[in-house]
Amino acid sequence: MYEDKTLVCKECGQEFVFTAGEQEFYAERGFQNEPQRCKNCRDARKQAARGPREYFTATCAACGGEAKVPFEPKSDRPVYCSECFARMREQQQ
User: Which of 26, 40, 65, 80 has an alpha carbon within 20 to 30 A of 3's alpha carbon?
Assistant: First the structure.
C-alpha cells in the first residue's frame, strides 16, 4: 500500500527516504504531515531542546568499577555499571 518516498530536509537540504514502514507508523498514529527533517536534523533538534545531559560518577555495587550514570546516585540504592546492569537484566529474564 505504501511506497518509499524521497523527501528533502528543510533544515539541511539533504534528501532522505520516508520509508513505507514509517508512513504506516505515521498513519497508525493519526499523523497527517510528512516529516520535514531528516533523522540527523530531528535528533539534533531534540538534543538541543533537551540540553546537555549531566552524568555522575559512582562506584558499581557489583564489580566495584566506575559507573557513569545520568542521575545523582543516592546512598540508599545500589548503582551498577552498564555491564553489570546488563548482566542482571539477562538473569531476570
Answer: 40
